[in-house]
Design brief:
The protein is of the alpha+beta class. It folds into four domains: 73 residues, conserved putative lor/sdh protein from methanococcus maripaludis s2 fold; 96 residues, Efflux pump adaptor protein, beta barrel domain (Elongation Factor Tu (Ef-tu), domain 3), CATH 2.40.30.170; 73 residues, Beta Barrel (OB fold (Dihydrolipoamide Acetyltransferase, E2P)), CATH 2.40.50; 116 residues. 34% of the residues lie in helices and 28% in strands. The longest helix is centred in the middle third of the chain and has 33 residues.
Length: 443
């Protein structure tokens, strides 16, 4: 009885079926707490390290030795080659050999590309053969008939005359016999026909003999001479085409682009990137560079031909180059309300490259003795200034700088104090941006 009661008694220390262990429960709870702590830490880190994306522009300062003349206008543009050449082929064909690559320096007359020339050589040989044939015909006409031809014509004429004399004698004899009623009238008619035929043959051979003695007509000789000259032109054309399979540099300069590869087909007109190429290389003389600028029509009156200017580039802001206005566009751009101006770089060096950003400070012609070159010329966009302050990006933070704005122009606002050039200026600071906020440059 006691045994049965014990079997019905509940053992509370015995593990229930399906109940997790105490260690499993502790691991689950610990994992949840760790996940929550990591999420809270990441959120706090992102909040502490949040940065604002901003547009940044490097401040450029213009401080040349010409400051005493004064700057009447600042403008930005691009360095361009004064004379860029896209060298094209004069004949079509496949590229057989290329002797240059991008950035190679070449001299005038240097061989750059060779095209396959088998077809053009065959055309030249054909033209030369035709010329030789026509020249032989012309020589034959100019020299006239050979003595043997004249002798043969005379022999044919004499033979015909002998036949004619025999026909005449036979005709006389037949006429007498017919009158004596010995022969019929038919015999007389036959003899007369033979005689008339002999007369015609003699006359024909006489004319042939005379022509052989005189030789060809002058008109025939002149016509043949014309054909010879035409053949000479065909030879010259074939020689020119063959020579044009060798493409040479027209000037001394630098290769800007290599447009073809060996085996590509070259034509005399541009087809496309996947089709035949219209030019093989582009090159330019990098000692003849210009700055191409679009000047607002409101500022155009401040400039004149040959006006001097100081050129700087974004790549090398500490280097200054002298220049002068070499060209005004003959027409304005209606959509942009600008006029294109080209400024020649007087003494370029190997640091300048076509398509570089460049700025030009146009100088006044009249010198101002009272002006001093101590303060650099700094131009910034008007949108960067807020309550006589600007933001610059320094070590990932927005730092406030107090500035003294000067006169404004179409290029921006001149800064009299506060910036010296080289700073990373935040050009459109958000309204919520404060001093010390973390920022990152917009890509």
């Amino acid at each position: 009885m006691d045994a049965e009661l014990k079997s019905l008694q509940i053992d509370r220390n015995k593990k229930r079926v399906g109940e997790p262990s105490k260690w499993a429960t502790r691991w689950i709870i610990g994992g949840i707490l760790l996940f929550l702590l990591l999420g809270a830490g990441r959120f706090a880190y992102s909040r502490l390290n949040a940065s604002t994306e901003v547009s940044v522009q490097r401040v450029k300062a213009i401080d040349s030795g010409h400051a005493e003349q004064g700057v009447v206008l600042n403008a930005t543009g691009y360095i361009v080659a004064a004379h860029k050449i896209e060298l094209a082929a004069k004949v079509i064909g496949k590229v057989k050999w290329i002797g240059v690559d991008k950035a190679d320096k070449v001299t005038e007359g240097q061989v750059l590309v060779r095209l396959e020339d088998d077809e053009y050589r065959a055309q030249l040989d054909q033209a030369k053969g035709n010329l030789a044939n026509l020249q032989a015909h012309l020589a034959e006409l100019e020299h006239g008939s050979r003595p043997e031809e004249i002798a043969q014509a005379l022999a044919n004429l004499n033979s015909s005359k002998a036949d004619l004399e025999n026909a005449r004698v036979s005709l006389e004899r037949t006429r007498k016999l017919v009158s004596q009623a010995v022969m019929s009238q038919q015999n007389l008619d036959d003899a007369q026909a033979r005689y008339d035929s002999g007369v015609a043959k003699v006359n024909s051979l006489q004319k042939a003999y005379d022509l052989v003695k005189i030789g060809p007509r002058q008109e025939q000789i002149d016509a043949m001479r014309g054909q010879v000259e035409q053949a000479r032109g065909a030879v010259a054309y074939a020689e020119t085409n063959l020579a044009n399979t060798i493409i040479r540099s027209p000037v001394t300069g630098t290769i800007l682009e290599r447009a073809v590869e060996i085996g590509e087909f070259v034509t005399t007109s541009f087809v496309g990137d996947r089709g035949a190429k219209g030019y093989v290389v582009s090159l330019a003389d990098l000692n003849d560079l210009e700055v191409e600028l679009d000047i607002s029509q409101n500022d155009f009156a401040k400039l004149h031909m040959a006006q001097k200017g100081v050129i700087t580039t974004d790549a090398f802001p500490d280097r200054k180059y002298d220049g002068f206005i070499r060209e005004f566009s003959p027409e304005a751009n209606r959509q942009k309300a600008t006029v294109q101006v080209k400024v020649k770089v007087t003494h370029p060096d190997d640091r300048l490259r076509p398509e570089m950003n460049a700025s030009v400070a146009f100088l006044s012609d009249e010198k101002n003795a009272a002006a001093t070159p101590s303060q650099p010329i700094v131009i910034v966009p008007a949108t960067a200034i807020r309550d006589n302050k600007v933001f610059v990006m320094l070590e990932g933070k927005a730092v406030t700088r107090s500035v003294k704005p000067g006169p404004a122009s179409s290029q921006g606002v001149r800064i009299e104090q506060g910036l010296i050039g080289g700073e990373d200026l935040i050009v459109n600071p958000p309204a919520t941006l404060k001093d010390g906020d973390r920022v990152r440059q917009k890509v």
